[in-house]
């Protein structure tokens, strides 16, 4: 079976497919679509309606409607956000959780209006890189924050799916290894048994009271 | 992440680390443990002999107080200072430096706990050696933690995220096994992200061309409509 154009490729060996899974989850996000048909009660021609992204893409592919970009996905909104990310130490909370995946999917097809999807894509890519760089630099500070916690946790307001997918596995592995190195040896088994009055002969250190048998020298 | 897995290969190999010991009394038939001993000269290991034994072999003796333990040279005070300053090649000392160091710390803690309890019961007052060993164990743990979570961690993160598709042998050859696992987790996530950016946004296009090959497997000449056909 031959296809005219390459279709979706599966992750190659050495990749865990986490970004693909996040992208799949992002398709449940609701976006506005203007249908070109009427199918009561949900769809009326020309009336915007909120549908999941996967349905909106399906409608647009079949020329049954067109997707309306969300409010935050515009040059006027993204440029100030980029500036804010560059100047503020914390991550901005004005972007949705799946902003990166949504941008990639929505700007992947030509538009019939004046919107330039390439500019939007580049702006969001810049925002993403700045955020990742901020998280990268604050990584040791996050580890230090969790030093005294029994169950290490850190709250990062505004973190999004793309950054979590990129940095999450490394952070989890580092925290696990750090917990392993911090772990104290539990040498209280015999102590607890003694308190209960049990015999703790096994493992009790001994000192010889008489000289041991010596061989002829 | 290391788990308490009995079959963890890295944990098993880390226990091969040789621990310097000193016997507290004569050991029969163990003269071969002394590397300076001439074969056949003695049949026992005299009291006070210094020898080296792997961690997995010495643990029971340590809890029973048969031997005095000390840290290997590359886990000692001077080596730890060089490691904290970032001047030491950790992998050259031990490929599983952090796991072996943690295991040594556990061994020393177990040793001091058991021996101290027995000596207190027997009224032995020579606990200074045990206090020294406890301090060494705590300092070793601090060194391992600061070495792992310090500059090496930041460098590993930078390399993992920014070297997708590049040859990273130059960097990873200096990492211990624990750090290599960490690097791999970051690099896998980064390469998955890059792969998704290239391949994951394409539309699922409908199939436009089909090549159909119809072959008859068992033609039924009497009933033409029953020909079994295989389409490929």
Report on the architecture of this protein.
The complex is a heterodimer of chains A (217) and B (232). With 217 residues, chain A is mainly α. Chain A has a domain at 10-28 and 70-173: Methane Monooxygenase Hydroxylase, Chain G, domain 1, CATH 1.20.58. Helix content of chain A is 45%, strand content 6%. Chain A has helices spanning 18-26, 53-61, 75-87, 99-106, 117-145, 161-182, 189-195; strands spanning 30-35, 49-52, 65-68. Chain A has a three-stranded antiparallel beta sheet with strand order 2-1-3, covered by helices on one side. Mean pLDDT of chain A is 79; it is low at 1-13 and 187-204. Chain B has a domain at 9-149: Methane Monooxygenase Hydroxylase, Chain G, domain 1. In chain B, 50% of the residues lie in helices and 10% in strands. Chain B has nine helices and seven strands; from the N terminus they run αββββαβαααααααββ. Chain B has helices spanning 9-14, 55-64, 77-84, 90-93, 97-122, 128-149, 151-162, 169-172, 177-199; strands at residues 18-23, 27-28, 44-45, 50-54, 67-69, 214-216, 229-231. In chain B, the strands form three sheets. Chain B has a three-stranded antiparallel beta sheet, with helices on one face. In chain B, strands 2-3 form a two-stranded antiparallel ribbon. The radius of gyration of chain B is 30 Å and the shape is elongated. Chain B starts with 8 loop residues before the first helix and ends with a strand. Residues 219-223 of chain B have low confidence and may be disordered. Classes of the chains: A mainly alpha (217), B mainly alpha (232). Chains A and B meet through helix 1, helix 5 and helix 6 of A and helix 5, helix 6, helix 7 and helix 9 of B.
């Amino acid at each position: 079976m031959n296809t005219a154009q390459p279709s979706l490729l599966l992750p190659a060996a050495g990749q865990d497919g986490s970004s693909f899974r996040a992208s799949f989850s992002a398709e449940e996000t609701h976006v506005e679509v203007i249908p070109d048909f009427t199918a009561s009660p949900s769809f009326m021609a020309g009336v915007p309606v909120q549908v999941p992204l996967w349905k909106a893409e399906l409608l647009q592919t079949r020329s049954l409607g067109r997707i309306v970009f969300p409010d935050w996905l515009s040059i006027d909104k993204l440029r100030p956000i980029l500036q804010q990310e560059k100047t503020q130490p914390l991550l901005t909370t004005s972007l949705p959780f799946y902003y990166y995946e949504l941008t990639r999917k929505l700007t992947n097809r030509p538009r019939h209006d004046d919107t330039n999807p390439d500019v939007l894509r580049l702006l969001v890519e810049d925002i993403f890189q700045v955020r990742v760089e901020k998280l990268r630099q604050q990584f040791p500070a996050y580890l230090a924050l969790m030093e005294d916690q029994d169950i290490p946790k850190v709250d990062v307001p505004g973190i999004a799916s793309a950054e979590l997918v990129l940095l999450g596995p490394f952070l989890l592995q580092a925290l696990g290894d750090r917990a392993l190195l911090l772990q104290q040896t539990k040498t209280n088994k015999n102590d607890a048994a003694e308190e209960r009055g049990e015999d703790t002969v096994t493992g009790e250190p001994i000192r010889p009271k008489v000289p041991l048998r010596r061989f002829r020298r | 992440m290391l788990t308490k897995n009995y079959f963890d290969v890295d944990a098993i190999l880390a226990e091969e680390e040789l621990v310097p010991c000193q016997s507290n009394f004569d050991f029969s038939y163990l003269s071969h443990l002394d590397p300076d001993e001439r074969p056949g000269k003695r049949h026992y290991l005299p009291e006070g002999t210094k020898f080296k034994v792997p961690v997995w072999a010495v643990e029971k003796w340590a809890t029973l107080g048969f031997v005095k333990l000390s840290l290997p040279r590359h886990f000692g005070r001077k080596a730890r200072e060089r490691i904290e300053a970032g001047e030491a090649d950790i992998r050259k000392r031990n490929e599983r430096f952090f796991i072996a160091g943690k295991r040594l710390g556990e061994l020393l803690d177990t040793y001091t706990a058991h021996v101290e309890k027995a000596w207190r019961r027997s009224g032995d007052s020579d606990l200074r050696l045990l206090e020294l060993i406890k301090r060494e164990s705590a300092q070793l743990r601090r060194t391992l933690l600061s070495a792992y979570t310090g500059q090496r961690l930041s460098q590993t993160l930078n390399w993992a995220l920014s070297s997708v598709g590049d040859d990273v042998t130059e960097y990873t050859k200096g990492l211990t096994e624990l750090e290599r696992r960490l690097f791999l987790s970051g690099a896998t996530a980064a390469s998955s992200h890059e792969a998704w950016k290239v391949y994951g946004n394409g539309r699922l296009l409908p199939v436009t061309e089909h090549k159909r090959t119809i072959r008859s497997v068992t033609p039924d000449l009497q009933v033409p409509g029953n020909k079994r056909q295989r389409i490929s």
